[in-house]
């Protein structure tokens, strides 16, 4: 539950450390350099989560994506800053109730920092990684099989215990704190063993944004449809530029108009049907959640005899 917050604090600490290394204030760091990253979360067989991240140092934030970093901050220097910074980052996890104790959470001992260099494939594990190897490395963990977490009838005892602990902590938090509490919300993330972060995240300027990729897919469908309609071949000479162009670079002609018709339901019968459907949907969601929790508790009891 605290892992996303631990990563957030790590990126903050890293920015502070880089600013200190360059001899500038944290607020002025963007004028000299920016830190970009892409990371994925990997579930270990033991139920813990490992983060695998590719961290890059760029030039001034306003200069765009992948602008060369200051000469004083090369790959080995950034690796040293990461090694020195990460172990000192902590998060205080408050107790779930009066019978619990607060805990200081930090990164584990398995901190492996290696420099990515351009060039041919490196098969020597002790040598520097290449960009292609890192891309494959991140993709491997982004698509890793997690059937041990979700499969029925084949879960390991410690995974079952993890899931049961999530349910127990959520119930204790609900009794002690009420509905709106981090521990109470763990009931929604039992299938993820309490981890409610995204499996993959990146900084905004690490690469093209996800919004730009969505626009590109929509534009590609338009290009394909127009080609099929007219029979003209698709001109690929500047296709990438056109698909990834900013919104302000695209001219959209809108044909038609909007007319306000009204708000709400047309009559009492339509309102009654809508309210009944919404109530039935809520009841079904509650039934599924209760059945899910009951199955977890049943599995724990059966394994414990």
What this model shows, in words?
This protein is mainly alpha-helical and 305 residues long. Among the domains are: 3-147, no CATH class; 210-249, no CATH class. The chain has 8 helices and 5 strands; from the N terminus they run H-E-E-H-E-E-H-H-H-E-H-H-H. The strands form 2 sheets. It has a 3-stranded antiparallel sheet, sandwiched between helices. Strands 3-4 form a two-stranded antiparallel ribbon. The longest helix is centred in the C-terminal third of the chain and has 36 residues, at 268-303. The chain is globular and about 60 Å long. The two termini are 30 Å apart.
The portion of residues forming beta strands comes to 5-15%
Low-confidence stretches: 249-255
Describe the biggest sheet? 3 strands, antiparallel
Spatial extent as radius of gyration: 25 Å
Question: Largest beta sheet: what is the strand line-up?
Answer: 2-1-5
Mean pLDDT: 77
- Specify the number of helices: 8
Return the string of H and E elements.
HEEHEEHHHEHHH
- Structural class determined from secondary elements: mainly alpha
Distance between termini?
Answer: 30 Å
**Helical fraction:** 40-55%
The gross shape turns out to be globular
Quantity of strands, as a count: 5
């Amino acid at each position: 539950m605290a892992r996303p917050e631990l990563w957030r604090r790590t990126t903050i600490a890293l920015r502070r450390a880089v600013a200190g290394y360059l001899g500038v204030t944290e607020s002025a760091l963007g004028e000299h350099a920016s830190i970009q990253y892409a990371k994925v979360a990997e579930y270990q067989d033991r139920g813990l989560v490992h983060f695998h991240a590719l961290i890059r140092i760029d030039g001034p934030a306003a200069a765009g994506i992948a602008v060369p970093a200051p000469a004083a901050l090369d790959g080995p220097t950034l690796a040293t800053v990461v090694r020195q910074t990460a172990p000192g980052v902590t998060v205080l996890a408050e107790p779930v109730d009066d019978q619990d104790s607060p805990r200081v959470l930090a990164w584990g001992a398995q901190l492996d920092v290696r420099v990515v260099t351009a060039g041919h494939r490196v098969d020597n594990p002790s040598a520097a990684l290449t960009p292609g190897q890192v891309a494959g490395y991140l993709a491997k963990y982004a698509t890793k099989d997690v059937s041990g977490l979700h499969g029925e009838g084949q879960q390991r005892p410690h995974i079952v215990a993890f899931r049961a602990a999530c349910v127990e902590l959520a119930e204790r938090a609900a009794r002690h704190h009420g509905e709106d509490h981090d521990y109470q919300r763990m009931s929604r993330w039992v299938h993820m063993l309490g981890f409610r972060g995204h499996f993959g995240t990146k900084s905004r300027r690490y690469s093209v944004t996800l919004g730009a990729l969505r626009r590109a897919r929509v534009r590609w469908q338009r290009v394909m449809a127009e080609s099929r309609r007219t029979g003209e071949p698709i001109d690929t000479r500047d296709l990438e530029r056109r698909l990834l162009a900013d919104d302000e670079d695209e001219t959209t002609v809108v044909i038609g108009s909007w007319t306000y018709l009204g708000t709400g339901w047309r009559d009492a019968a339509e309102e009654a049907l809508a309210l009944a459907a919404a109530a039935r949907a809520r009841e079904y969601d509650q039934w599924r959640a209760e059945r899910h929790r009951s199955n977890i508790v049943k599995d724990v009891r059966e394994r414990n005899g």
